[in-house]
Amino acid sequence: MKAKRQSDVARILSENPYMKHSEIAAILKVSQTTISKDVNEINRTLHNETMIMTFIHRNRLLEEIRRKKRLCSERLAESRGMKGTRWLEEWTKLVEKECKILGIYSPDKRIIAHIDTGKFSKEERDAAVRAALLVEDVIDVDPEPRN
Question: What is the dihedral of CA 114, 117, 118, 120, to 10 degrees?
Fold first, then answer.
């Protein structure tokens, strides 16, 4: 009975998204509170399903990127440095896409956006640069800055 009612609520709202809960309650002969609870449950279910589908899609994209990266690495190894720049460039683009999907660049954007506003001290900016370089394996771990 509850599933049928929620199905009816979803159908009514899909036909008229601006219909008031009280109007839906009158049509289905239940209380407005029941309709509000049904709508909240429908929204939660849709949200959960959307999140699951988003993660599935994200994982498919990441697997495809990783497959292409392996192919690029194989082609680069086969080229033995001769005309391998095409594969290296493609691999670099794939790494950038992978980082974007994983959200790795998000903290960088926040730091960069605030560096010019003076909200970070010189030590904080230097620490952020060292951390970014460590993540990119550009420098070795060196806890003490060199003078």
Answer: 0
* Total of domains in the chain: 1
pLDDT band at 19 (very low <50, low <70, confident <90, very high): very high
**Residue 73, token pair as written in the block:** 């690495």
Model pLDDT, residue 140: 46
12 pLDDT above the threshold of 80: yes
Q: Is residue 32 part of a domain?
A: yes
Question: What is d(CA 107, CA 14) in angstroms, rounded to the nearest whole number?
Answer: 39
Domain for residue 39, yes or no?
A: yes
pTM value? 0.53
14 found inside a domain: yes
CA–CA separation, 7 and 70 (whole Å): 46
- Supply angle C-alpha 20, 21, 26, rounded to 5: 100
For residue 125, tell me if it sits in a domain.
no
Q: Amino acid letter at 132?
A: A
For 6, the domain range is 2-104
How far, rounded to the nearest angstrom, does the alpha carbon of residue 55 sit from its chain's CA centroid?
9
